[in-house]
Amino acid sequence: MKRYASLVLTALVALACLGTPASAQVPAGLLRFGTTGTYAPQAGNCLSILAMNSSGQVATDSGSPCTPVILTTAYTNATTGYTAIMALPAVQGSTTVRGECTLVWEDSSTSGTPTFAVQLSAAPTDLWVTAVPSAGAYVAPTFTTITTTTQTAVTGALTTTAATTPYRLSLNFALQNATAATTLTVYAESNNASYTVTVLAGSSCQWVP
């Protein structure tokens, strides 16, 4: 009887998805059932809770869009008016989220004094923004562009000024993936079998929503 009920539930969910417009369906990899909170779970948002109880499956929408916005071609503006660089995914009402931008810019003239701005499509309760420009010229990163599955060095030979002294390395990824799923693995090597490179416990990597 329990098996029959489970099959019926699965069929009902499948039928509900068939009758739902593609734009409202949940992307592959996310599970959502029903409506929670003050608004329906939104396609593209991160899933914050998935639980099983006597009532069945319960999924809760985090309210935070999971899809980053990445410039794949350079933005330019030679006018004295603001033009859009990029627009972040929509944030649902009655939610509190955090966001960030990393913008590397340059100007064609030493007399150039560009400014940056933000704008919301609907008035918020509050939007707090801090802007921290680099002091002086910023050394723009040299992007290592990878299009294969080969291990590829993304740093040069790093200098060890003092032995057994911690140093920090930050890696930033912007992945424009092809059609196949992929897993990114981070590697390290030493330049001599007598020297040991150690990555300390607590180090971490993640894809940022």
Strand content: 5-15%
Class based on secondary structure composition and strand pairing: little secondary structure
Fraction of residues in H or I helices = under 10%
Report the mean per-residue pLDDT as an integer. 74
Give the assembly state of these chains. Answer: single chain
Strand order, largest beta sheet? 1-2
The largest sheet, given as strand count, sense and whether it forms a barrel, is:
2 strands, antiparallel
Short description:
By secondary structure, the chain is mostly loops. The protein is 8% helix and 9% strand.
Detailed description of the structure:
There is one protein chain. This protein is mostly loops and 209 residues long. The chain has a domain of 64 residues. It is 8% helix and 9% strand. The chain has one helix and two strands. The chain has a two-stranded antiparallel ribbon. The longest helix is centred in the N-terminal third of the chain and has 17 residues. 3% of the residues are buried.
Please write out the topology.
Blueprint: H1 2-18, E1 45-53, E2 56-65
